[in-house]
């Protein structure tokens, strides 16, 4: 299987092919909150792993990493990215 995967409750794997973008403020502990509407729209559950691309507004650089969604809809960025 190639690309990001999402496992539904029935055990069926579905590829996630849609990308979402939103503005986020870096919170304490290098965390970013995923908006509720995006979580509801895609029926995202805690523990799911995503490919994340962060683009800085200050510089034209971007970083890519994998992150896991926690119970509050928050992902943690690695310190290397910041």
Tell me briefly what this model is.
The protein is mainly beta and about 80 residues long. The chain has 1 helix and 6 strands; from the N terminus they run βββαβββ. The chain has a domain of about 55 residues.
Protein traits:
disordered N terminus; 6 strands; mainly beta; 82 residues; globular; 1 helix
Largest sheet: 2 strands, antiparallel
Low-confidence spans? 1-14
Secondary-structure-based class equals mainly beta
Round the Cα radius of gyration to an integer and report it: 13 Å
Q: Would you tell me the overall average pLDDT? A: 78
Distance between the termini: 31 Å
Gross morphology: globular
How big a fraction of the residues is strand? 25-35%
Helix content percent band: under 10%
Write down the secondary-structure element order.
EEEHEEE
* Number of helical segments with 4 or more residues: 1
Major beta sheet, strand line-up = 1-2
SSE topology sketch:
Blueprint: E1 5-7, E2 13-15, E3 31-33, H1 36-41, E4 49-55, E5 62-68, E6 74-76
Antiparallel strand pairs: 1-2, 3-6, 4-5
Overall description:
By secondary structure, the chain is mainly β. It contains 1 helix and 6 strands, in the order βββαβββ. It has a domain of 57 residues. Helices cover 7% and strands 32% of the residues. The longest helix has 6 residues. It is globular.
């Amino acid at each position: 299987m190639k690309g990001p995967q999402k496992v539904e409750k029935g055990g069926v794997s579905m590829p996630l092919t849609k990308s979402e973008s939103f503005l986020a403020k870096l919170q304490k502990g290098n965390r970013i909150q995923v908006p509720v509407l995006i979580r509801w729209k895609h029926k995202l559950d805690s523990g799911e792993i995503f490919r994340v691309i962060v683009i800085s507004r200050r510089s034209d650089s971007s970083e890519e990493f994998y992150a896991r969604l926690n119970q509050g809809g928050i992902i943690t960025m690695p310190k290397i990215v910041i």
